[in-house]
């Protein structure tokens, strides 16, 4: 597929997601990075978003709970170019009933070439990057060109 360029704004749209066993870890990470996060637009799956908002006071747009379709809502925002980064504290050791949704979310983030952190170390690396506060151009699939070829 052909590629095109999408410009991420300096104020990023960031999704925050965590499996149940990793919610405390994500909360700790968000508290440690609260000052940086305040300068961005935050989204989360339902349970995670409500917990983070309550505990940190951050403004977070919460979707529905991940197992109820929240992972898919986040994925849809990514495919619409409305999210710039995904912080997903994923639990690789416990199977979850909505595992296909989780894999779909990670796949769509890769398709649309957005930065993804699935653990604390990677999230720290992303948040220490000087690109976090800058406009950034990324290559994404040129869906309009793809459709034009099909007509």
Key terms for this structure?
151 residues, alpha/beta, Rossmann fold, five-stranded parallel β-sheet, two-stranded antiparallel ribbon, 7 helices, 21% strand, lyase, EC 4.2.3.3, Methylglyoxal_synth_AS, methylglyoxal synthase activity
Distance between the termini: 15 Å
> Could you please say which CATH topology applies here?
Rossmann fold
- Low-pLDDT segments: none
List the helices and strands in order. EEHHEHEHEHEHEH
Alpha-beta content class:
alpha/beta
- Helix percent band: 40-55%
How many helices? The count is 7
Q: Any idea how many domains? A: 1
Within the largest sheet, what's the order of strands? Answer: 4-3-2-5-6
Rough outline: globular
CATH superfamily: Methylglyoxal synthase-like domain
CATH class: Alpha Beta
Integer-rounded radius of gyration: 15 Å
What's the main sheet like? 5 strands, parallel
Give the total of beta strands. Answer: 7
CATH architecture: 3-Layer(aba) Sandwich
Q: For the residues shown, what is the average pLDDT?
A: 94
Report the portion of residues in β strands.
Answer: 15-25%
Binding site for substrate: 19, 23, 45-48, 65-66, 98
Family: Belongs to the methylglyoxal synthase family.
Keywords: Lyase
Function: Catalyzes the formation of methylglyoxal from dihydroxyacetone phosphate.
């Amino acid at each position: 597929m052909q590629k095109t360029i999408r410009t991420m704004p300096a104020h990023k749209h960031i999704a925050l997601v965590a499996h149940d066993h990793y919610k405390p870890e994500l909360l700790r990470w968000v508290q440690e990075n609260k000052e940086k996060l305040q300068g961005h637009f935050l989204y989360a799956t339902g349970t995670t978003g409500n917990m983070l908002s309550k505990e940190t006071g951050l403004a977070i747009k919460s979707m529905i709970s991940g197992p109820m379709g929240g992972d898919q809502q986040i994925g849809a925002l990514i495919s619409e170019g409305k999210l710039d980064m995904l912080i997903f504290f994923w639990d690789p050791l416990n199977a979850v009933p909505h595992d296909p949704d989780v894999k779909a979310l990670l796949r769509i983030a890769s398709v649309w070439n957005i930065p993804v952190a699935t653990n604390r170390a990677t999230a720290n690396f992303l948040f220490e990057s000087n690109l976090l506060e800058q406009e950034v151009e990324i290559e994404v699939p040129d869906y309009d060109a793809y459709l034009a070829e099909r007509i």
